[in-house]
Amino acid sequence: MKRDMSMTFVLNKIDRLILELRLPPLDTYLKLQYIVDDVLSFIEENEFYSAYSHKFEMSPASGHFLFASATYCFCFSLETFGSLYAKNHENLDVADFSEKLWGDWYYDSTTNNLTSKPHQRLERTFVKLVLGPVYKLFTASLTSNSAGESIASLLWSNFGIQLDKSKYKQDVQILLKDVFHTTIGTASFVDSVSICIVSPKKIPTRQTNSPILTHIVKLIEHADGSGFDSLVRIVKGTLTKGQKVTVYGDNYVEDDENYRSEIIDAILVPGGRYNFEVEEAGEGSIVLVKGIDSIISKSGTLALSDDYIFPSQSYSKNSVFKVAIEPFVPNDLPKMLDGLRKVSKSYLACSVKVEDSGEHLVFGSGELYLDCVLHDLRNFFTDDLEIKVSDPMPKFSETCSETSFTVISTQSGENSISVIAEPVNDTKLSLAIENGKINLNEDIKTLSKKLRLEYGWDALASRSVWCFGPDDIQSPSILLDDTLEAETDKKLLYSAKPHINLGFKWSVNEGPLCDEPIRNTKFKILDATISGAEISRGGARLIPLSRKACYTGFLTASPRLMEPYYRVHGTCPHRAIAVFTALLGKRRGYLESETPIPGTGLFQVVGLVPVIEAVGLETEIRLNTQGQAMCFLVFDSWNIVPGDPLDETVPLPTMKPVPDESLARDFVLKTRRRKGLSGEPSLQKYVDQDLYHSLKHNGLVP
Length: 702
Description:
Yeast translation eEF2 (G' domain); Alpha-Beta Plaits; 5 domains; Ribosomal_Su5_D2-typ_SF; alpha+beta; 8-stranded antiparallel β-sheet; globular; 5-stranded antiparallel β-sheet; Elongation Factor Tu (Ef-tu), domain 3; GTPase activity; nucleotide-binding
C-alpha cells in the first residue's frame, strides 16, 4: 500500500476447516467471510489507505482473493468455478456469474436461477455452487473403496475426467492430491496475478538516466556458508552475464565512496531447492546475481550511474533484544569477527556493535531470532566455533519529561549556543518521521506546509527544522533553529550548521545517562554566537559545543529512561486467559483485549510486556497451559521506566528485586557498569564547576 501497488490474497489451508474442524459448508463460508472482512478492515485502517488507488478492487468477486490448499495441490478463485459451470451452460456469462458466487446471492434449485432475495430454504451461491462440490470431492475420495467406484462416477459425471484405475488404490492422501489437482488445479493463481497485478513494464520507472536500475534486496548465503548471492529486482533495463555494472552500498548517500565496479559472474532464477542459470534477465525479474556482493552489507543499488539510489531499509529498528558474546578460546576472535560479518549480512534485522569495553553485542528482534543467529554463527558461518553468551538484555533509550533552557560556550568564549530541550508530545509526528512521510530532502516549502497544516506548527518553526536523530529515526528527536535575525548573525550560524548537526547527532545517538539513543526530545537553538574567525568556528570547536549544549539541556529537563515493550499476541481456550493475565502481571505487563475467534473455541488475546521481562515468557505460557496456548511477541513501542534515573535517594537492595520506583536508576547504573562507563550520569561533566555548585546549592539539580 505504501507503494500504491495492487495485491492478491491467498487464503490457504481451507482443507483444515473441512477435515479437522469439520465445519458444515455454511460455517466454512462464514469463517472465510470473516477472514476476508478482517483483511479489508485492516487495509481500511492502514495509514496509507487514503492515498491507495486500488481500494475499490479488494473483493473475492474481483479475483483478488483466492482459496487454496497447498497440502492437496489446489487453488481456485470464483472465476474457476464460473468457468467449470460454463462448460455445461453455453450461454452463461462467466464474469457476471462469478461475481454472484460471493456475498448475498442465493441459488434457487427449483428455478435454477440466482437471486439476491434471501429465503429460508435457499442456500448462498458460494455454499451451494463452490463449497458443495469441494465437500463432495473430499467425501467421495475419503469413503471410496479400492476400486474407486464412487469417486470415479463423480469425476466423470461432473468434470468429464477419468483417472487411471491404479490411482484409486493409492493412499487416500495421495488420492486427494490427484483428484483436486486434476479437477481444480492451480492455474487460477497465475490467472489472478496476470489480471490483478500490474505488469512491471507499466509501472512508472524511477527518474534516472541510467539504462539499468536494479534494487539489491538482500544477500542469500551459499549452501556451505562460504559466500553470498545477491537477490535483486530489476526495475529498469536488462542484466546480462559478464556485464560490468556499478554497485552502490546502502549508505552511499552518506558516504559517496561506498561503491564499486563489478562484473556479473552468473544470473540465476531461484526455484526452491534448485536455481536455474540464465544468460540474461529483463524488467520485473527477481533473480540471484553472483559476483557483486563485496561491498553490500544489507541491501544496495545496481546501476550505471548514481542518479537514483534506493533508500536503505531500516530492518533493525525493531531489534531491541541483545546478547553479548565472546569466543571461548581467545585465539578464535578473528574467526568470530568473520562469522559476525557474515551473520550481519545474512540476517537483515541483525546488527553487531562493539562497546568501548570491547564487548561484542548482537542485536535481534527476539529470543528465537537470536537463537537462530547464534546457531548459524557457531555451526554454519564458522567451523564449530565455541562462544560464551551473556544473559539477554534489552536496548534502552533516553528521553526527557520537562522543558529546560541552557547556555553553553567554549572555553575561549568566542562561540556560544543557547538551547531549549523539551519532550516531543506528538505521536503522530514521530510516526510520520519514522515512516518517511516527513523527510528533510523534501522542498522546504512542501515540508513547511505539511508541518503547518497536518501537525499545527507555526510558520517560523515549520521552516526551521535542521536535523532528525538518532540514526534509526524511531520515535525521533528534532533539532530546530529558533533564532531571530535581529539577534543572531544568520550567515555565520548557517556556516556552522553542518558542525552543529553533527554535534546533535552525536548527542542523540549516545545519550548522557547510559550511552543509549535519545528519543522524543526537541532541541531548539534560541541564540548562537559564532566566531567570525574561520579557525575558531571549525568542527573541532563547534561539534563538542553542540554536543555539550544538547547534553546539558537534556540533563536539566528531568531525563527519563525508556524501555521497549513487546506486544503479545496469543491464541488459547477461554480457561487459559487467566494464565495469560497472571503471567503478564507478574512481569510488569497487562492484558489489553480478548476476542473470540469465530468458528473455533479459541480466543485471541493481546497484551503488552516489557522486553526485559519477556525472557522465557513463551515457554512459561506453554508450560502453565499444558501446551493449549501459544503466543508470539513483536516490538510495539517505547515506554518510560518507573522512577528517576538521577535520584540518589531511592533504595537499591542487593540480591533482591528492586522496587518499581528504583527501576530506572537500577537499569542505568547496571548498563553503565556493563559498558565500562565511569561514575554516574551527572550534569557536573558538562557545565562550569562554579555554575554547577551554584545550581546544586539552590536545589535546582540533585
